[in-house]
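I'll show a sample.
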Amino acid sequence: MKWSEISIHTAEEAVEAVANILHEAGATGVVIEDPEILQRQWEDKFGEIYQLSEKDYPEEGVIVKAYLLVNSYLGETVDQIKEAVNNLALYDIEAGPGTISLAEVREEEWETAWKKYYKPVEVSDRITITPTWEEYKPKREDELIIELDPGMAFGTGTHPTTVLCIRALDEAIKGGETIIDVGCGTGVLAIAAAKLGASSVQALDLDEVAVHSARINVKLNHTAEQVSVDQNNLLDGVEGPVDIVVANILAEVIVRFVDDATRVLKPGGRFITSGIITLKEEEVKQAMESAGFRIIESHYMHDMYDSEDDGAHYPSGDTVAPPTILDRTAITSGWVCIIAEKLA
C-alpha cells in the first residue's frame, strides 16, 4: 500500500479550514508545521538561536500536511482539495499562498511519520491530553486524562482554540451542568466537560467522520454515560434548556447560530466560543449581543511556543503549543475565546 504526503502552504488564519478540507477529502494524520513554533521549540531546547532550513520551511505562513492513499482517484482528490482551498476566499478566509505539493511515502513510513509530533500535553490546571499510543501516568491526584487518536479526525486537542475552550470549561463547570458541544470533531471538549463534572453532554457534528471519531473517543475515555454523539447541523432541531453551549468552529459559522444558542440556553447560561481569529472578534461579539448575550470576558492566545508558566506544557516540563493567555492589547494576531451569558 502506498501513500502520498500532501503539503499545503497556507496562512495561519486558514489552518483549521485547510485541515478540515483535508479530512473531508479522506486524508489521515493531519500535521500542522508552523515555522515560528518549530524555531522557538528548537531555540528553547538548545538555548541558542536556531535557524530552520529555508528549503523546508517558508518565512511566512504555515504548512499543513496529511496523507492520502495512492489510488486511481488521487488526481481527482487533489484537484478537489485545490478547489476547496481556493474557495476559502468566498468565506473571507485568507488562504495565503495556497500552494500544494505531493510526495510519495511507503506505508511503514506513513504509520510513524506523523506520530512523532504528538506527546502528552497539559492543557489546563486539571486536564492532560495524550495520544492513545503513549503510556502516561497522572502526576497529580486531581489530574484528568483524555486519550485521543489524532489520526482519525480533526486534530489532537492541543490547538490554541481547543485549549482556550477547555480552560473556559474548567472554570465554568462546578458539577452537574448540562452542555451542548457544537461541531464536536474528535469529541475532546465533550469528553473534557464530562470529566470535569458535567452531568450530560450532547456532542453534535455535521461530518459523519467526526461523529464516528467522537463516539470512539467517548468510549475510549469511559464517558459514554454522560456524553451522547449525534450527526446534526449546528443546533437545528435541538431542544434545551442547557447550562452551557460550547463551540470551537469558525467565526463565520458561529454568527450563523447565535440565535439558536440563545434559544437552547437557560437564562444566565454560558456560551463559550473559539475558533475565532482576533480579526473576527468584534464581528462575533456584535452578533452575540444582538442575539441577547452579555459578553463576560475574552481570552487570547498566540499560536506559538512560549515559556510562560500559564502555557500548555509537556508533563516533563518542556513548553509546547499553545502557550500563554494574553491581554488583547498585547497581540495583533492570534486566537480569541469569547465567553458570554444569556440575559434573562
Observations:
- Residues 37-57, 304-332 have pLDDT under 50 and may be disordered.
- The chain has two domains: 2-115, 118-342.
